[in-house]
Amino acid sequence: MIQVPAGSWWDWDVVEWNAGRLRLGAGSDLSYHHGPELVFSDPLFVSCPAAFQDPAFREPTPEEMRTVRRQTGEAPELVVAFEADAGGPEPASGLIAAGGLDIVRGTVLRYWRGDRAPGERLAPWVRPPQA
Question: pTM score, two decimals?
Answer without folding.
Answer: 0.91
